Amino acid sequence: MVNMKKNKKMQAIWKARYIYILLAAYFVWLLIFHYGPMYGLLLAFKKYNAKLGIWGSEWVGLDNLKRIFVTPIAMKAIWNTLTISVRRIIFQFPFPIILAILITEMRGRRLKKVYQTIFTFPHFLSWVVVGAILTNFLSGSGTINMALANMGFEKINFLGNSKIFTSLLFVTANWKGMGWSAIVYMAAIAGIDPTLYDAARVDGASRWQQIWHITLAGIRATIAIMLILDIGGIMNAGFDQIFNMRNDVVNSSVTILDTYVYDITFGAVPNYGFSTAVGLFKSVIDFILLILANQISGRLSKGEHKLI
Fold this sequence. Notes:
Helix content: over 70%
Number of strands: 2
Shape: flat
Number of helices: 17
Largest sheet: 2 strands, antiparallel
Strand content: under 5%
Order of helices and strands: HHEHEHHHHHHHHHHHHHH
């Protein structure tokens, strides 16, 4: 009996051999590019010397991690990361949901496709391009300030005022990303049983009531999962965007952990051990927040929306 079961398993594996070959290639890629580089985490516990290499460098234990909490710039970067990320969840997370509902509620398939294309297109623009466009439009000699000056108004320091600049982060991130993020919610809405809307109309439910009680209820699991992922990545405050939009005037107010790691790694006197420790600290906090968000969501929904 045991041999027969083994033979059946081997036959099943042989029939699906091409799938297993593809999976093997993926796991090799995963090991090389995701697990292999984890060897470099040893730098967080060493005083790195390029001549001695990672193994030969002096072991300093937790000194690099302790240094994070006594370095004012590092603590400022942690605070900026948390505040910017929390505000991103507040000011950015709802907009893809709203956009998905608005596009879904539109009449006419062609018109839906047109608007979906319009809102999705900015996602494919690099932040390098977006940053250059914003500089041309919002700098002191940019298009908007020149127009204000020609009309007799005072120029506005969009890129030099930290409050305005922080608001620009959320506005531009919504403009660039909400169309792409809305695709997930639109797919979830498409999976809702249409007969629910028919029954609601028969019962006299308004369009708003249908959206509230059917559409939003139907995509509740998707919203919960996306929120868990956003909370899990709360220490990633948007490196690409901030790196390409920041300037010396507002740099201190928008320096996040990722830009701080970049600066101390590629600065005049790089400290690879300390920068690795900062990156490790960020990853550990992200992991803890992801687990907590997952557990809280699971308890609130009785396990329905847990990722793991």
